[in-house]
Structures
1.
Amino acid sequence: MTTPRAQAISNAELVRQRLTGGAGDWRSAAFAALLGLLLVVTLGVLAWLLGVVLVNGGPTLLARGLDFFTSNLASRPESAGVAQGIVGSLYLMVFVALVAFPLGIGAAVYLEEYAHDTLLTRTINTVVRNLAGVPSIVYGLLGLAIFVVALGDVLGPGRTQGRSLIAGGLTMAILVLPIVIITTAEALRAVPLTIREAAFGVGATRWETIRSHVLPYAAPGIFTGTILSMARAFGETAPLILVGAVVGGFNVSYDNPIEQAYGRYTALPTTIYDWARKPGTFDGNTYAAIIVLLVVLLGVNALAIFMRNRFERRW
Amino acid sequence: MTVETERPLARDDQEQRTIRLVSVGHELDEAERIASSGDAVGAISIADEQVVFDLQSLSCYYGAFRAVKEISLRVPRNQITAIIGPSGCGKSTLLRSFNRMNDLVEGARVDGRVLYHGVDLYADGVDPVEVRRRIGMVFQKPNPFPKSIYDNVAFGPRVAGFRGDMNELVEQSLRRAALWDEVKDKLRSPGTALSGGQQQRLCIARAIAVEPDVILMDEPCSALDPIATLRIEELMHQLKENYTIVIVTHNMQQAARASDLTAFLTMGEDRAGYLVEMAATDQIFTRPQHRLTEDYITGRFG
């Protein structure tokens, strides 16, 4: 005796109907459509922002050309440029690189490779993680209290009143320090234990193991992290406003970097902030400076992504 | 070669005090008491001067957990000693206590003594780096450095301050590891590009490049195919002329084929591994003294 089910399986026409006649998975389709819509909205907002910036800043940037990059701050928009902002930002990057990288990488190597797993080190790890999420204005207050007020006579003597480039640079370095520690620690953790065992197994000391193997293999990840932290520092505005970057350009010549470091300064984001507060005549300059900032940040991030994909090791 | 019971391993005419190699020094629980056929465990005699490792009531802990319980055994020179036993019985932990590799594990510590040529490896003032130079290790998964084949082999001698002809040392180490013919034309290419079996032989070359006294092998063939496994076993047979080898394996056939002595570990109710018996390999596999050993080698458990 043949059951209806057996008939349905053996009858080619019925099989064809069943396999092709379904209503389809409309829930999945609806969900996918919803997600797609959300993506469009998100990208749309970004595109709109970018469009506004390009439309308003593009003409000014094109009209001014190279002049915009080589001009100092000025009271008339036609002659004001971002030269001091760019130089100031690059200066800050140098401080970040000189202060935050050795400190951060060193701290991460100690925490990952040397420190025992105690309550103290676990607490420190948690604190570092939380510090990375602290709003940057708080670092600005820290910098104001320590580098500008308490150490002002040393770091920014005289007319600078403590609001020196060094104070700003140190504030930025402290700001990115937790990020440097975390990304370095992650890069170190990605080097498998078996590699360390291999080195120890042939009689290497801990230092030889770290120097010859762990650090070199973690280097691409560490570089990626440091570049991203540079980008973060490059775009930060709030702490710089607190520690005094916005008061204006360099009050000394470009020729003496040391003197410059003790003097007043500006940075690219604070230049934008300064111009944005001025009455409408500076609008073109403001948007043009935003384009410059965005291009630099995108470039730096692209470099970081490229380096990660190109050099990072898969274990 | 095979080692017979009650015969000293040393064949010179010096005074050969016979030493009972093994004793089950812990309290057997009731189940084990029933399972065990009396107190007979394999007893091998090794002349004192042939003893490389002399473990005296060694216990290994990870934090509060005791992974290895009161193991006493002796490892003779220029022999292959296999450590077998079911998963989780502490074979690797035991092996890693032979060169203080467990120092790297957070919370690991030992009780008892590991005498290496009479020196307690865990005594104050013993430098674990020097210990590992003398007692090399090959790991379960081949772990070449992501560097050139040459640099893999040369790293150990370099950190040891080797001042001789490095090219010659690298060649000689690769030859001894039976890898030279396959890699001599590509010494500068990365070690990680080799096949699994070649990688493991590279790791053996790397271990012998520092001219150790002992080579510890922690399941060196578990990631390899049967042909690569046989090559490693042949290699071990050649290497024992110059080195003392201790190998952990979960593969009983491998222990039977490749080792001179076999120690059988299992774990008790408290999950701590203990030594059931240790004897000449052919005795363990043909006339085990202990019911647990017999059950294990005949595949009834483990």
2.
Amino acid sequence: MPREITYNWLDRPAELTAQEALFVSRLKANEDAAYDELVRMYSGPMYHVAYRMTGDAAEASDAVQDIFLKIFRNIGGFKGEAALKTWIFKIAFSEILNRLRWWKRRHRYATLSLDESPNGNVPGHGVADAGPTPEEVLQAKERENAIQQALRRLSHEHRSIIVLRDIEGFSYTEIADVLGISMGTVKSRLARARADLKKSLMRYLSVRYL
Amino acid sequence: MRSLDCSSAQKLMSAFIDSMVTAAESESLEVHVTLCQACQRQLQSYKSMRSLLSRMERPPLPGDMVLETRVRLSQQRNKNFRARFENRLNYVFKPLVIPALFGVSLTMLFFGILLGCLADNTVLAESRLKEEPVFGLYKPVRTTDHTMLRFVSSDEQNLDEPLTIETHVGDEGRVIDYEVLSGPQNPEVDGWIREMMSLAEFTPATAFGRPVESKIILSFVAVRN
């Protein structure tokens, strides 16, 4: 089923709730159940972000594991100035962008296959989904690859902000916290990133007149 | 209400689809797109793109990723727990190590010295027991060779029976006093004893290395050839 993002229209300030504070204290106390819960809650979104940023399943999986280790090493220093989610994704983006820079220096992009989706499945059309026709499956795969390629052509900065806002549905405040930029910069950077991306995806965009 | 040109309208579109514009900006843009088909298409494409991106399916998680993550996390946590425990131990015990080591060293030194002394005394006692099993640090008075020679070579007296004399020897080895315990009683023998005693010299007895007064029993027997 297509996933619909729930946007945070009110753009509430990102701050630590009482429930999160309790959860953080459990993490700081090295509680097994708390770490299991952390992995269960964040491994999916984190992998999704890592995959959209890197375009590579194995790389994204490695990144996720390293991100959790970093979270564990740094949780002691978490003071609760921001929400746990934004703090976690700040670490995640730091790790992912480091990896991208590392690979860029070694020209890794030439070796990555854009035709393969993670685990060899067509995104959006799992084995259990018997609904789509072969033609629709093919179109979906083509569209998915086109989006991934279009994302790949964006700069790291633009890709980050598109993934956070348009794919993961982060609020502007959360994006500002995660990327360490001001709200004004979020607005302007997002506008430029969307404009860039729109050029690449024009043939997949349906335009209706009002 | 300010009317927008196309350039300004397009700048607002990204924020507009996120409802991050003011009410006035929103109204201006809405009015502009009703009048400008190009901008209307632009706004539609923005909305369409956002919809396309938001509908992207989440890629399935690699089967072993969550498990591997948990294992690595668990390993790291155990490692850290052990390191923290070791650090805590160091933190608690390190300040005690130097004083404790110093105390143990002093104790060992003290016992070493004590045992050394005891061992020396034991050896000393053993060596003295070998030399002088009875007296230890006391050495009895002894006759000197020339005195004995004088006694033996004196053949002026004809002793019919054994003569026993208790002699009191001073710390200089000279006879202070004497008493005939048994033997012949006649003036000749008495004269001979008095002469011998006045000339006799002894090696005085010593106690803790110092000469002291002592007594010695002298016995004389006449030997007939």
3.
Amino acid sequence: MHQVLSQETEEDVQSSLQKIPAIYREVLVLRFQEELQIEEMAGVLGVPLSTVKSRLYRGLEALRGVLQGGAA
Amino acid sequence: MNHERHARAEQLIAQERVEGISQAEHSWLSAHLQECAQCAEEARQTEHALRSMRTAAFPLPSGLASRTQFRVHLRAMELREREPKRRTMWLACAVSWGFGIASAPYVWSLFQWVGQRAGLPKLVWEVGFGLWWTIPALFAAAVLLMETSRKGEQADWIGQGN
């Protein structure tokens, strides 16, 4: 039962992430899945730290939005 | 419970995960989450979404890997371009050291002459002569150490980036 629920959650998250714009999706994946530091992300993406941070905040907001069934 | 407290809590929930929050902010947030079911639910949902994301093994967006490779390639080119400059620096050091060794007896005589003219004790102009050689050498050593240390950090960063 728990495994089935976990699988559903995983599918939900994957489908939710697909709805988020690519620039936010990539920072979410780099930060929370690949566990990169913000400075490393700025280096990898070639953007300023402030841009990485603002994309992360917006990405989180979008993730919460899509998980709650709203628009990204 | 006013709207500003909810907004602050919402901001701190995100900030905690993006760049971290201070101990005072953490304490405030914990206290608020204990008394506000709505914000506690939001924190729980955020944490749950991120935890699921960590375990979902979601593939990196297409294009990111090639962009990363491109940036590493640019960095390698930049480091390669520095190589001729480094060689020039070593050549300049060698010429400087050669000239310094060749001119040492003359510099010694000069310090001796100035010391005697100024009536300085022998120890003073001898120390002056020693500093004449050691200060530039120490400065050069510090520059080289800083350069080596920076190079090491860059190599580590590139290693982590891959």
